[in-house]
């Protein structure tokens, strides 16, 4: 609890004690008024001041105005205890709201603590402590045990274990050795390491995540925007309705003026929209905070709301449902020796950073002679064209070879097949296998339990590989041999057939799926740590490589929307009943207090359930 909240709590307790004491004291007339004014002004001076200040600035109709009008009116008609009680319980509701928002904000602030303050830079053998913004790419930084890793980089010396929980929600530390990438914002646990910086601070993972989290509250859900618009129209209508209730029945019915005014004040108290205005944004805020603790970054409450409506999920295969750890498992050669075919493929792929290229280079296991290598052209979605020893080498999928008029031999194996041609003649094929992630099948099953109607697999791999993975995971549909533009076209076709009120999500690894991530109703990036494309293109980023986080994200979004709807129905239902009773003369000011403050407190407590991990 903050210092300001403690002061508010003290005022609530003191004014409550004064109210009880004054109530028991025998008093009448002016003395009774003065005695009740003391606790009223103690607890309500700030509300009265905000109401006056807003009126002077042209902002008349807000909750401060309603509270001031209702409580001052209660004093006018002689209901002093009720006037104090309305203000007292209103402040109780406000305190509950601030504590709840603070709790949710702290869960997001815990993620904000990943920002490093300094970096130890080694320059010409000397150590300098600088701000991370001052460190250039290529410089070497020293990181001691217990320190946050300040910048993205690669270990060049030392072994350690890193705690990635702040980013991924994963409690198990990760072992790191020379050559491994390190991510800014994670914590170096037990070893001294030297790291070569690979990106500037403003381009680093931690910087992008912090920017994402800070801006999340700006993107409001449809329900939030509706409640905001509703409150702007609703409050003036309430004041108008109360005015008519105070004037018309005494003029045309057998009501006294005091009776009309009393019922109008009850109407005002009941009609205050606090329960909705507070609890709905708080529910979304809590949902985003709860998700961030699990390593699920949601860029705004609008995306959390859309995620709850998802009934079709389209997955990219490599790096999303499979590990992306490719290895060469077979070589089939036509004329050349297998060793020669692998050597040519390794040289052709040597300038590519694609996981398939990496697996071929690892299988070759020898250094690349750059003198033998000429012009290299990467053909997105198809493969590589390279000049090796003066010969034109094509290394890629069937589509690449067929586009050059070369007929590849069919592959009898399940796996990714890299076909090779030398100077226009088919040379053979290299089989590369990928492994399905341990929780991929569990994820698909969990999605079905959550009511997701269709799961679809997209891949640029050959049809045999795609179908094998799709069948192993129980996918409803599998589409293989797709180029990047083919994936976009297929997702657009699926979107055109989506039932109204439902949403389609695309889940990719964030490296080469940016066009599809941005085209889907909601784009979800897997394995977001270290991937610039994931953080920038996706609406939701799952900060580790586990697909099961997707089911957790959907469960959180649906729980949040359930609580939002509960609060709307509960608040409007109770208020509607009490408004009717008040207008008919069956509800007094105490019932009105419950319908306002009581409902607000219960709605806030319900909204706080979105923050729970269960």
Please explain how this structure is put together:
With 614 residues, the protein is an alpha+beta fold. The protein folds into four domains: 3-109 and 217-284 and 559-611, no CATH class; 119-150 and 152-198, Calcium-transporting ATPase, cytoplasmic transduction domain A, CATH 2.70.150.10; 296-322 and 437-543, 3-Layer(aba) Sandwich (Rossmann fold), CATH 3.40.50.1000; 327-433, 3-Layer(aba) Sandwich (Calcium-transporting ATPase, cytoplasmic domain N). Helix content is 51%, strand content 18%. The chain has 20 helices and 22 strands. Strands 10-22-21-20-11-18-19 form a seven-stranded mixed β-sheet, sandwiched between helices. A six-stranded antiparallel β-sheet has the order 2-1-3-9-4-7, with no helix packed on it. It has a six-stranded antiparallel β-sheet with strand order 12-17-16-15-14-13. Helix 17 (514-519) links the parallel strand 20 and strand 21 (522-525). It is elongated.
Structural class: alpha+beta
Summarize the biggest pleated sheet: 7 strands, mixed
Ends: how far apart?
A: 24 Å
Q: Helix segment count?
A: 20
Strand content: 15-25%
Domain count: 4
Helical amount: 40-55%
Anisotropy-based shape:
elongated
How large is the radius of gyration?
32 Å
Number of strands: 22
């Amino acid at each position: 609890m903050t210092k300001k909240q403690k002061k508010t709590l003290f005022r609530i307790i003191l004014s409550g004690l004064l109210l009880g004491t004054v109530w028991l004291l025998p008093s009448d007339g002016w003395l009774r008024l003065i005695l009740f004014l003391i606790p009223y002004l103690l607890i309500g001076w700030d509300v009265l001041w905000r109401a006056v200040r807003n009126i002077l600035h042209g902002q008349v109709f807000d909750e401060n105005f309603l509270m001031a009008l209702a409580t001052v009116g209660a004093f006018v008609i002689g209901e002093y205890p009720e006037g104090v009680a309305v203000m007292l319980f209103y402040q109780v509701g406000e305190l509950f709201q601030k504590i709840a928002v603070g709790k949710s904000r702290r869960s997001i602030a815990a993620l904000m603590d990943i920002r490093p303050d300094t970096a130890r830079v080694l320059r010409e053998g000397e150590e300098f402590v600088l701000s991370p913004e001052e460190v250039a790419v290529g410089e070497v930084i020293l990181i001691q045990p217990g320190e946050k890793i300040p910048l993205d980089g690669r270990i060049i010396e030392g072994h350690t274990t890193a705690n990635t929980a702040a980013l991924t929600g994963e409690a198990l530390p990760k072992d790191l050795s020379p050559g491994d990438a390190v991510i800014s914002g994670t914590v170096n646990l037990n070893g001294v390491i030297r790291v070569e910086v690979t990106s500037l601070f403003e381009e680093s993972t931690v910087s992008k995540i912090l920017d994402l989290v800070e801006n999340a509250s700006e993107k409001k859900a449809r329900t939030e925007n509706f409640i905001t618009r509703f409150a702007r129209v609703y409050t003036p209508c309430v004041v108008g309705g109360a005015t008519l209730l105070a004037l018309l029945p005494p003029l045309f019915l057998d009501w006294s003026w005091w009776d009309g005014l009393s019922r109008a004040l009850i109407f005002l108290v009941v009609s205050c929209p606090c329960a909705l205005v507070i609890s709905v944004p708080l529910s979304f805020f809590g949902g985003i905070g709860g998700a961030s603790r699990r390593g699920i970054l949601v860029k705004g409450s609008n995306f959390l709301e859309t995620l709850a409506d998802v009934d079709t999920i389209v997955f990219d295969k490599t790096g999303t449902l499979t590990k992306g750890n490719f290895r060469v498992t077979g070589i089939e050669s036509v004329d050349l020796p297998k060793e020669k075919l692998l050597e040519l493929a390794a040289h052709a792929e040597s300038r590519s950073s694609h996981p398939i290229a990496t697996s071929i280079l690892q299988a070759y296991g020898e250094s690349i002679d750059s003198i033998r290598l000429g012009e290299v052209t990467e053909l997105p979605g198809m493969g590589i064209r390279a000049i090796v020893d003066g010969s034109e080498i094509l290394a890629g999928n069937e589509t690449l070879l067929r586009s050059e008029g070369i007929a590849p031999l069919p592959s009898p194996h399940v796996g990714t097949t890299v076909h090779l041609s030398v100077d226009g003649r088919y040379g053979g094929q290299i089989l590369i296998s990928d492994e399905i992630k341990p929780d991929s099948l569990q994820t698909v099953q969990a999605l079905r339990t959550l009511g997701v109607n269709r799961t679809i697999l997209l891949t640029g791999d050959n049809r045999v590989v795609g179908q094998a993975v799709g069948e192993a995971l129980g996918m409803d549909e599998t589409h293989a041999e797709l180029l990047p533009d083919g994936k976009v076209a297929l997702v657009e076709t699926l979107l055109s057939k989506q039932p109204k009120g439902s949403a389609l999500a695309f889940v990719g690894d964030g490296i080469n799926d940016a066009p599809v991530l941005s085209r889907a109703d909601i784009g979800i990036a897997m394995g977001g740590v270290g991937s610039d494309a994931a953080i920038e293109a996706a609406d939701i980023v799952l900060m580790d490589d586990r697909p099961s986080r997707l089911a957790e994200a959907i469960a959180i979004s649906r729980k949040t929307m359930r609580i939002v709807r509960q609060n709307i129905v509960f608040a409007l239902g109770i208020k509607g009943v009490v408004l009717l009773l008040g207008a008919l003369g069956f509800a007094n000011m105490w019932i009105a207090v419950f319908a306002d403050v009581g409902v607000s407190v219960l709605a806030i407590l319900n909204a706080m359930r979105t923050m729970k991990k269960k």
